[in-house]
Amino acid sequence: MGTVQRLGDTKDGGFDLKIEAKTVLEGVHLGDSIAVNGTCLTVTDFTNEDFTVGLSPETLRKTSLIELKTGSLVNLERAVQPVSRMGGHFVQGHVDGTVKADQGLLKYIVPKGFIAVDGASLTVVDVMEEEECFNFMLVAYTQQKVVIPLKEVSQKVNLEVDILGKYVERLLSSGFVDSFKGSS
């Protein structure tokens, strides 16, 4: 985890976020990706104790990062390398939405499937279609390592659904599968 030091405008008219985080900085370089609460961001500056990332207007619209304050704790994760073990699912850091899982996102969420909540890869326990929500369980170890238990009721979190569901939907809607049926 890291701690927000500053969130605000830059001299050149942009917006950035500075985070104290010794644990993810070993071997970091300018241009590296670090996920902050599940949002893939590019390192624009760093020291031995903190790093800065730029925030685009799209990132501010699609994520909960705009609601962070100085002192907020955030989940941090470096980009996975192809030789790393994967203990969860492929989390890209491309946030699909925040807080309420509307039908547009809910269709990709399945019991025993994966969901990233503020960047933490979690297993879905149940999906309640009518209430437009889902639930998951956090074991004690995970609760100590992520910021989710610190959230207040109705506070925004970043959600990223499993990319495989999106690929399957796109493939099926493209007519690709039907083209095979017609050729046999």
From TrEMBL:
What class does this enzyme belong to in the EC scheme? transferase
Identify the residues that the record assigns to the Lumazine-binding domain, covering every copy: 1-89, 90-172
UniProt entry tagged with the keyword Repeat: yes
Please provide, alphabetically and separated by semicolons, the GO molecular function terms listed in this UniProt record: riboflavin synthase activity
Instruction: Report what the protein is called.
Output: Riboflavin synthase
- UniProt EC number: 2.5.1.9
As given in the record, the signal peptide range reads none
**Keywords, comma-separated and alphabetical:** Repeat, Riboflavin biosynthesis, Transferase
User: What PANTHER family does the record tag this protein with?
Assistant: RIBOFLAVIN SYNTHASE, RIBOFLAVIN SYNTHASE ALPHA CHAIN
Q: Short name of one Pfam family for this protein?
A: Lum_binding
Q: Which GO terms describe its biological process?
A: riboflavin biosynthetic process
> What SUPFAM superfamilies does UniProt report for this protein, alphabetically?
Riboflavin synthase domain-like (SSF63380)
Ranges of the Lumazine-binding repeats in the UniProt entry:
1-89, 90-172
Q: What does this protein do?
A: Catalyzes the dismutation of two molecules of 6,7-dimethyl-8-ribityllumazine, resulting in the formation of riboflavin and 5-amino-6-(D-ribitylamino)uracil.
- Record pathway: Cofactor biosynthesis; riboflavin biosynthesis; riboflavin from 2-hydroxy-3-oxobutyl phosphate and 5-amino-6-(D-ribitylamino)uracil: step 2/2
